[in-house]
Specification:
The protein has 7 helices and 33 strands. It is mostly beta strands and 490 residues long. It has 3 domains: 215 residues, Roll (Phage tail proteins - horseshoe like beta roll fold), CATH 2.30.300; 72 residues, Phage tail protein beta-alpha-beta fold (3-Layer(bab) Sandwich); 133 residues, Jelly Rolls, CATH 2.60.120. The protein has a 16-stranded mixed sheet that branches. Strands 17, 18, 20, 25, 27, 28 and 29 form a 7-stranded mixed sheet that branches. A 4-stranded antiparallel sheet has the order 19-26-21-24, with no helix packed on it. β9 and β10 form a beta hairpin. α2 packs antiparallel against α3. The two termini are 42 Å apart.
């Protein structure tokens, strides 16, 4: 059903404009100048998209810029006898509302003599687009997923409102060095079995079990329903590999004083090594010059390093510039891949100049240190129920920046949750006021065995099409079988 629109407008807030995000808009394009709007509002990890065409009168220049926040509102009056349960009450009906951001491509103007000109532009999900532009550096250990997402937003994207995101009851480890904020949040939401969607400037991270139930679809709610499903992408044995992490081999953490090391005055210590490789060494350091601090590994010969003055005899070496050293504290030194020719190599600590740095030592003169060996960060998880249904289907995934066993386990579980079941999708045209008011993230009950659609489905896309010629709004709904979106793992 195409429904009549009472009032339409497009509000615009300019990017980088001073003031509060909730201030009145800088520009409003009224309904009579808004030719058409096509919007696809989506849940999950796919950004919303929109195309906008507006009439620009010669005596009024609408100021639209790349990066501007735009909000489309369509007021739909409800006829006598309709009960509105969903959508925003407005003027006796409800308002379809969507917030986006003008994209840097696809914006054009056209003029024809002395008549009105036309502006055509594309927009995308405001929240997701902002977060795609932001980079995250930080670390979280055994923190709640909801807290980590709030921290990412608060520290990197003040334009986005994440205040409604609760603690989600799932803890994980997260490490980031200039990582994409949106990709991080998508991965974190999956770990907590949550669905992502935006509402204005708000990002919602909603557990599947907490999604709002809308209603059970009746024949009068929809037109032209069809469903598609495939088990081609089902994977029920997931293996995640994130390279290697480190486990402690040996330590001497007592620090009674400092010993100055230079290019000629070195500190040596024979490490215990049960493995064929030293992953890294932590040293307690006090930085006192602009020289680099170098840590070398050499084999043993007669109870001493094989050739302490000959760096070509090193098994491996690593260093930090002075700018990267702490004023005083622990510093990690990571060795490139190598194979120890013998067990128990010598650790040689020195600088590249005469001034040196101070290294923590105990009363015996032994360095204050921790040494580590590498171990693979790999985890495999499976779904017995899915294997029984579809047979064993394996998938191996390589993931970077997962630096603990917990993080790798969480990644494997979240991948299994998304892949263990087929993706069943239904699509239909809204044929009732309440169907027009459906929003991404709501649950609908479907009982249409004739189109192979029975059970609970999550609305993942709502597409609105407004046309000024007949002042009508058309709505298309896409929903996914709940079990095929996420199946929480016990």
């Amino acid at each position: 059903m195409v429904t009549t629109v009472n009032n339409v407008e497009l509000s615009v807030w300019h990017q980088n404009q001073p003031g509060d995000p909730d201030d009145p808009p800088d520009t409003v394009i009224e309904g009579e100048d808004l030719n058409s709007v096509e919007i696809s509002g989506r849940a999950e990890d796919v950004l919303d998209e929109a195309s906008i065409e507006a009439k620009l009168p010669l005596n009024e220049e609408y100021d639209l810029r790349v990066g501007d926040r735009v909000q489309f509102d369509a007021d739909i009056l409800v006829g006598v006898g309709y009960g509105v349960s969903y959508g925003t009450n407005y003027g006796g009906g409800f308002t379809v509302s969507w917030t986006g951001r003008i994209k840097p491509t696809g914006r054009s103007r056209s003029h024809c003599g002395r008549v009105d000109s036309t502006l055509e532009t594309d927009a995308t999900d405001f929240v997701g687009n902002i977060l795609q532009d932001r980079k995250v550096t930080g670390s979280w250990v055994n923190d709640d997923v909801g807290k980590i997402i709030r921290d990412i937003i608060n520290q990197n994207a003040s334009e986005v409102d994440g205040s409604n995101i609760p603690d989600l009851g799932v803890s994980t480890d997260q490490f980031a060095q200039q990582a994409d904020a949106w990709d991080m949040i998508v991965g974190l939401a999956a770990k907590a079995d949550c669905l992502l969607y935006q509402d204005g400037r708000e990002l919602h991270v909603e557990p599947i079990d907490n999604l709002e139930y809308a209603f059970s679809l009746e024949p009068q709610d929809w037109l032209y329903p069809w469903s598609t499903d495939t088990d081609d992408n089902v994977k029920n044995i997931i293996r995640v590999d994130s390279g290697v992490a480190r486990r402690e081999e040996q330590s001497q953490e007592t620090q009674d004083s400092f010993d100055r090391v230079t290019e000629s005055s070195r500190l040596t210590y024979r490490l215990r090594a049960r493995k064929s490789e030293i992953h890294s060494v932590d040293l307690y350091v006090s930085s006192v010059s602009d020289e680099s601090l170098e840590v070398r590994l050499q084999a043993d010969e007669g109870g001493s390093p094989v050739a302490i003055d000959d760096t070509d005899s090193d098994i491996e070496s690593t260093s930090w510039d002075a700018d990267n050293l702490p004023g005083e504290g622990w510093q990690s030194f990571f060795f490139p891949n190598h194979t120890l020719p013998d067990r128990d190599p010598w650790l040689i600590i020195q600088t590249d100049g005469p001034n040196g740095h101070d290294i923590g030592v105990n009363t015996d003169g032994d360095p204050t240190f921790r040494s580590y060996y590498p171990h693979p960060l790999t985890y495999e998880v499976s779904s017995t129920e899915s294997i029984d249904e579809f047979g064993a289907r394996e998938l191996s995934i390589e993931r970077e920046n997962l630096e603990t066993v917990t993080a790798v386990q969480d990644a494997a579980q979240s991948e299994l949750a998304r892949r263990a079941w087929p993706s069943k999708t239904i699509e239909f045209a809204a044929n009732s006021i309440r169907a027009h008011a459906l929003e991404p993230g709501q649950i609908i009950e479907v009982d249409r065995p004739d189109v192979d659609a029975v059970g609970e489905f999550i609305v993942v896309e709502v597409s609105h099409s407004y046309n000024a010629d007949d002042i009508k709004l058309e709505t298309q709904i896409t929903a996914k079988w709940r079990k095929g979106v996420l199946e929480p793992q016990n």
